[in-house]
Specification:
alpha+beta; Uridine Diphospho-n-acetylenolpyruvylglucosamine Reductase, domain 2; Vanillyl-alcohol Oxidase, Chain A, domain 3; 4 domains; 5-stranded antiparallel β-sheet; 19% strand; globular; binds adenosine-5'-diphosphate
Length: 520
């Protein structure tokens, strides 16, 4: 066990004892401490994989086994890092924040219970989007999913990191309605109406009585979610919409100022995402098909890409869901609003129940092809996301784009950016695609990322989610009141998890036991 990564202050002998205790409690077939196991739980996209090497992994299959594992973790003070399916690619995947942690892999917990009358599904963490999609197809249930751009992951894990989809149910974390959680000391709690024995309303009324805790377990290290109820969108009678392309970078301002009010009025109920020309090119082609010049793509290549795919500088897809008559009426409003700001192309799309359907995020179909973009540069591809939150203000969005685009050019990287609408905010998701076999490029990524965080901070824009490497950096940028929120988080952390065994460092929340591990 000489090469095993260990948490600070740990000895190999102690980890070996912990491993034996896990094997005794769960069975050897659920405990993985071989060198190859450790490699499979690394984050292949991280700038430096070694920073997040786990010591091993365990895969319990029931809530009782999760409790048993937590008990052992407390006994030996082993940090556990829970994952559902571990496909949080670009943010850490299966790997823990603190090297030497043991990954608590919940992907074998795959139960699905479906309340078809109410459109509520009770899921265990291992249920992937494909699993749930197949279940719905098999049982011919009239519900649609809200799938993220890369749908390998789990429904619960995605919502726990505030992942998004494209339908009116696209803010996935809002679809939680009651959870079952194993606390770091091993007790099990049910939130919302789950606290009331046998309440038929567990999956229907999210708040329960008194404080509502679901969001407390989201992006936190306060508990292990072993089950959750989630709301699904009833299959709509009709889907209408348009794919709209705009010619100039400056058109971003009018796009945001036109779509924002429609979204806030809830005339538009899904969350459209405005994206640039690289989205299509990076998925369907590779960089060397366009140019062999290093540095950011120049305008002549951008024009060639746009011409080949017949796309604008920016594109956006708007979709309406529900009754056909209502959609038809709203479509007219959308069409006028978008035509008024002079798109270069407006392509309508329409579907009614019974017709063949497009398989895309707008119909809640799981997909993985967008991940093809990591092959853009060649070599071993990877990406991380830089995703600050902005108000729905066209001028501010345009300024943010201009600042960011200038930085991409300065650091010689190709720009892949999008502005995704929430109800009142925009998430400006910037994908940093890289080639891990290009040491020169890899040397630029960290300073580039830190510069973008500092630029955004100067405008008052904080990130909504971040990679393991930057959890402390981002937590530190939430600095109001001398970091009062972080202090509260850590007070709660220490109260719930006195031994600091659950995901130390997650979201920049460190228990006292690992205080020294916070990074600058
Ligand atoms: P996915 O299965 O969708 O790929 P991940 O398993 O990668 O999602 O998890 C996303 C994030 O949420 C990770 O940071 C992970 O630590 C956290 N997480 C995932 N599942 C759980 C869970 N069941 N309980 C608590 N935290 C979790």
């Amino acid at each position: 066990m000489a090469d095993i990564p260990l948490p600070p202050g740990f000895t190999a002998a102690k980890m070996s004892q912990a491993q034996k205790a896990f094997e005794a409690a769960l069975g050897a077939d659920k405990v993985f401490f071989e060198a190859l196991d450790r490699i499979s739980y690394q984050d292949k996209f991280a700038i430096d994989e070694a920073r997040h090497h786990p010591a091993g992994a365990i895969a319990p299959t029931s809530v009782e086994e999760v409790q048993a594992a937590v008990k052992i973790a407390n006994q030996f003070r082993v940090p556990l890092w829970p994952i559902s399916r571990g496909k949080n690619l670009g943010y850490g995947g299966t790997a823990p924040e603190l090297a030497g942690s043991v990954v608590l892999d919940l992907s074998r917990m795959k139960k699905i219970e479906f309340d078809a009358a109410n459109g509520v599904v009770t899921l265990e963490p291992g249920v992937g989007f494909y699993d749930l999609y197949d279940y719905i197809q098999q049982h011919k249930l009239p519900y649609w999913l809200s799938t993220p751009g890369n749908s390998w992951g789990s429904v619960i894990g995605n919502a726990l990191d505030r992942g998004v989809g494209y339908t009116p149910y696209g803010e996935n974390t809002k679809n939680f309605c009651g959870m079952e959680v194993v606390l770091p000391t091993g007790e099990v709690v049910r939130t919302g109406m789950g606290a009331f024995s046998n309440a038929p309303t567990w999956g229907l009324y999210p708040f329960g009585y008194g404080p509502a805790w679901d969001q407390m377990f989201v992006q936190s290290n306060f508990g292990i979610v072993t089950k959750a109820n989630m709301w699904l969108m009833p299959e709509p009678e009709s889907l209408m919409g348009m794919d709209v392309e705009f010619d100039r970078p400056e058109d971003l301002k009018a796009m945001v100022d036109t779509i924002g009010p429609l979204r806030r009025e809830r005339l538009l109920q899904q969350s459209p995402s405005i994206g640039n020309w690289l989205r299509a090119a990076a998925v369907l082609t590779t960089r060397k098909e366009w140019t062999d010049k290093p540095g950011a793509l120049d305008d002549s290549v951008i024009s060639a890409i746009r011409k080949k795919f017949n796309i604008g500088w920016w594109g956006v897809s708007l979709r309406l869901y529900g009754r056909e008559e209502v959609n038809k009426a709203v479509y007219k409003v959308l069409e006028k609003a978008m035509s008024d700001i002079k798109p270069m192309l407006l392509k309508p799309t329409t579907w009614v129940k019974g017709q063949p359907m497009e398989y895309s995020g707008w119909t809640g179909t799981p997909m993985t092809f967008p991940m093809q973009n990591i092959n853009w540069y060649g070599g071993r591809g990877g990406h991380i996301g830089f995703s600050p939150l902005l108000p729905q203000d066209g001028t501010k969005a345009l300024e943010q784009f201009q600042r960011t685009y200038a930085r991409y050019k300065e650091y010689g990287m190709d720009y892949q950016g999008s502005f995704a609408f929430g109800e009142r905010h925009l998430v400006n998701v910037n994908a940093m695609i890289f080639d891990k076999d290009n040491p020169q490029m890899m040397g630029r990524i960290d300073p580039f990322f830190r510069t973008l965080v500092a630029d955004a901070k100067a405008q008052g824009y904080g990130e909504y989610r971040t990679h393991l490497d930057y959890m402390d950096l981002v937590a530190e940028s939430y600095d109001w009141g001398g970091g009062a929120l972080r202090k509260l988080n850590e007070k709660v952390k220490n109260a719930l998890d006195p031994n600091g065994i659950l995901a130390p460092g997650k979201s920049g929340i460190w228990p006292t036991t690992y205080n020294g591990e916070r990074k600058a």
